[in-house]
Design goal:
The longest helix is centred in the middle third of the chain and has 34 residues, at 202-235. The protein starts with a helix and ends with a helix. By secondary structure, the protein is mainly α. It is globular, with a radius of gyration of 22 Å. It folds into two domains: 1-200, no CATH class; 213-475, no CATH class. The protein is 84% helix and 0% strand. The chain contains 20 helices and no strands.
Length: 475
């Protein structure tokens, strides 16, 4: 099977999984957002920042390294899994005792019992890394996505039942733990990996150079992605963090719906062409053109319809998220394109450049977040985050085009020109379009219909319709 066929198969299963999971998440969130308060969501948002950090430590860059290294034997995989098991146990124990310092930092004793529950969640997320990566390496995208759907369903059902029963923020925490447990159990049974009391360290040494750079990138990238939540939760309030996080969450949906369908497929397939940089560059530029064609017009639509989207999804108590989402919507197209760049660096076995990009991104983003937090408003934090996304988009593509592919920005600019025209068409349409007096749902239907009509016009005017036909035809 050629690359195009593998991409088409991988993207199909990835699309089924991502779209199903987004629908499940939207439905569950819509229900829970009307039961739980912004303050309760804020409590979970604060502790999730630390959970994500420990999940990153548990991964230790092992996941992408297992996918990239095609020479690992079953015995090697078992040794790596054993290492991840011991590491997960250690980190879970540490997380239990982390509740005290978190409670002191945020002046809220509730984080002590929460940390105990989340330690169980962390353990399962730590030991699922190797089985899941092994399935991806074997290109079993269908299995991975179906299992993820089942896990999200189980998590959503448990969370809703517990929320109705009055479990408050514990409904979200226990639901997440159920998801992690289901993912591990099924992936473990599907791969037949085995843990050993005494394991061989040689496989770890073989993947160390790759996983080291990947881990350092993840470590650095964590702070650029989560510092805003840490500081807002500390210096603003739990409710302010909830409003900010809800807006940020919705701004990520286009990535989950569109980009994340493609990104998980890139490294397992393109890594087979590790030494063919021209091939990898062609893949990247085509992905960039496709994502920009979708993302630029979508950013305009989201900006002008922020109020209807937030109110429809979460209810009237989430009005504090509207302006923040409107600002973050401007960066949607940048996030969509940027989310695929990591897999390109990995596929070319240049995690050193990925690490360098992560360091530069962190410096830029952290500086922007501190400036935003200093102003004392979550809207300014969002504005500075958008600015950092734009600057990081430039530096990442510099490393790709100049350092990896030995070319220049002109090829990227060419890929973005027609999508930019399509975005301008949508801008003109929504500037002149009158405000609708109907319900949020009806307004979204009307605006969405107008968006799709002029998106089609844009495809025809710019000739991008031909590009989509070529992609569908596997060219």
């Amino acid at each position: 099977m050629g690359m195009a066929d593998e991409f088409k198969k991988g993207v199909f299963f990835s699309a089924v999984g991502k779209y199903s999971n987004v629908v499940i998440q939207l439905l569950v969130t819509a229900i829970l957002s009307r039961i739980l308060t912004p303050k309760e969501y804020g409590v979970v948002a604060i502790v999730n920042v630390f959970l994500i950090f420990f999940q990153m430590l548990a991964d230790f860059g092992v996941g992408p390294a297992v996918i990239q290294n095609k020479t690992l034997s079953k015995k090697d995989i078992n040794s790596i899994f054993s290492f991840s098991l011991y590491l997960a146990v250690f980190l879970a124990i540490v997380f239990v005792f982390l509740g005290g310092p978190i409670s002191v930092f945020y002046n809220n004793e509730v984080y002590k019992p929460i940390s105990v529950v989340l330690a169980i969640c962390l353990f399962f997320y730590g030991i699922v890394v190797v089985p899941q990566s092994l399935l991806l390496r074997e290109k079993k995208f269908g299995t991975v996505n179906i299992v993820t759907i089942l896990a999200n369903l189980a998590s959503g059902i448990v969370s809703i039942i517990l929320a109705f029963a009055g479990f408050s923020y514990y409904s979200l925490i226990i639901g997440n733990t159920v998801k992690a447990a289901v993912l591990f159990l099924i992936f473990y049974l599907k791969t037949h990996v085995r843990a050993e009391f005494k394991f061989d360290t040689e496989p770890l040494k073989r993947i160390f150079s790759f996983s080291k750079n990947q881990f350092l990138f993840n470590f650095i990238n964590y702070f650029s992605r989560n510092l805003d939540s840490i500081l807002i939760g500390r210096y603003f309030s739990a409710s302010a963090l909830a409003f900010y996080n809800k807006a940020y969450q919705v701004s990520l949906y286009p990535n989950q719906i569109l980009t994340n369908v493609i990104s998980p497929v890139i490294q397992p397939i393109v890594s087979d062409y590790e030494t063919n940089l021209d091939k990898i560059k062609t893949v990247y530029l085509k992905i960039t053109a496709v994502l920009a064609t979708l993302g630029m017009p979508l950013s305009v639509f989201l900006f002008f319809n922020a109020n209807e989207i937030i109110m429809f999804l979460f209810g009237d108590q989430w009005g504090g998220s509207v302006i923040v989402f409107q600002i973050l919507a401007l960066s949607v197209w940048v996030q969509m394109i940027s989310s695929s760049t990591g897999a390109i660096f990995q596929s070319a076995n240049r995690t050193d450049l990925l690490l360098l990009s992560g360091i530069l991104s962190t410096i830029i983003t952290v500086t922007a977040i501190f400036i935003g937090v200093f102003t004392g408003r979550i809207e300014y934090v969002a504005l500075m985050v958008v600015l950092s996304f734009a600057i990081n988009f430039i530096q990442t593509n510099y490393l790709l085009m100049y350092r990896l592919f030995n070319t220049n920005f002109i090829e990227v600019i060419k890929a973005l020109t027609k999508p930019f025209i399509m975005g301008m068409i949508q801008l003109v349409v929504f500037v002149v379009m009158p405000e609708m007096p109907f319900t949020n749902l009806m307004n979204l239907i009307i605006y969405g219909t107008v968006f799709m009509a002029f998106f089609g016009v844009g495809l025809l005017v710019t000739g991008q319709m031909m590009m989509f036909r070529q992609v569908i035809a596997k060219k």
